[in-house]
């Protein structure tokens, strides 16, 4: 087709928005746009579901569903309105969507959005589905759905609308590295949905969907099979490895070890019950820092939804399940057997990954119960004899005081001739059990002065003095040690162990390479008293088996319990002010809007110019010209109306362009590439003329409103 003028047909004339294709043409149909918005919403929702490794359960749906659906509805209703109006509606609806999440208005929602990512990186997965954490998923999904829906509505791109959702899926992959389950099915679903979006935007026959989607599903299924074989699947990048864990914090104002003597004076106070298949010692608090006056804890508690990281021991274990019910145990410490691996029924649960100590978010009330699954290590005799202590200066630190010489000399005397670290530990245990007596009435305290008096003068004490002395003597031998406060099994009745204040006890632990922490019980039994649980500690049994090197053991007598206090705590910061977060968020939105304002018109013009069909390129040139003239959306104007409104260079190029576009309406199949090239030459000339005749302020206002 050449540039010759063709008379415009009367009657049905083309509108300002561009001539519509003839019946049977290949222009986008309304159902395709709505179906595309539905697919974009599904893509955003599936990407949000990628956080299922972070937040297990259906609570995640409350954050995802409205965030994926609402932006698609807004885009459908504001397709012919300015972009700023759509974004404003989305912002209002986003905030409204946080109300059911928080079950009310929450002024700190902006601060939560800013801080949630860091909180998740210091959380042991699975995370508790708390609103302050879920709001991050809600926001990311909403942003992906908003950008995708507006991109699909206002451009002619095919799959660019799915890119934000893919970014959200990438965030979910990073934050969920340590979580249970797999995101391969999520990735496969995204692949199928993006394929459906591409087929819809390609404006092909619906039959292509029937043929293309099964093919995409087959490829996704193949990826599900091959995905686990990729090298990255075995060792994925984990951002938590580069995040500083929380600082140690004080849990109680009084150390559990300081309460031992007081608890032993009122031995019949009910504390808690444990329903378990076998009697075990119930550990409560771990103390690994000593300053010469008292033992404190360096625990770094991290929130968790119930999982406790594994310890160093990977060999044979007994799995023990317990149900613990509080009857009067004070504080927020939670007792459990050995090292827990999973906890259920505790809201706001936190755990110290190093020791496995458990902490409740709020003080448990009487009748509160939870379930624990623990792993009780069962190393062999060979494992114990071959064990070597780990090297950790913090766990062998001894205050620089004169008493160190006394502790070292006694430790060396007690372990003389021992040719293995584990034998040194057992001989040290035997030495204390046979050279001092258990006495509930002994003076309390575990300062170096008090322990010196215990070793040289009284030779009588409770497990507070025995465990503290053992741990400090072990440190002089280079054995990394700590003190544990817990409880003996208690009195059994019908498979339930009733633990009282008199069952509290302290013992020591030494850390060995690969074995992890091993318990030692240096406290002797009370003279003439019968044990009330018939369970000998594993450490004493091991000492009897190892070539007769160690003393015969009963069990440790009742000693102290109680919630522990962690020392050297640092209070977490208050975080950023909500106003600062809101200001930063506003600035980010303005910058993002400016980027869209700059990029969207260029992207739209590029898509119109590069369409593979010449008739669509002609129509795109006409639509582009209407946009440049500021007539976007004024469909009531005809081509004649537009031509008669302009004169000069604009009119000289506008009339031929209108005639070419009008021809496309009636004979789309006859349009050639030359005609499309000519149409864009006319459109470019009009664009230049408009820029020279339109004031800058008018052009800027039109650009900011994206009209």
TrEMBL record:
Residues 455-524 form the Transglutaminase-like domain. The chain crosses the membrane at residues 34-51, 57-76, 83-102, 133-152, 159-177, 183-200, 207-230, 579-603. InterPro entries: Bact_TGase-like (IPR052901), Papain-like_cys_pep_sf (IPR038765), TgpA_N (IPR021878), Transglutaminase-like (IPR002931). SUPFAM superfamilies: Cysteine proteinases. Keywords: Membrane, Transmembrane, Transmembrane helix. Residues 1-26, 523-574 are annotated as: Disordered. Pfam families: TgpA_N, Transglut_core. Residues 8-26 have a biased composition (Low complexity). This is Transglutaminase domain-containing protein. The lineage of its organism: Bacteria, Bacillati, Actinomycetota, Actinomycetes, Streptosporangiales.
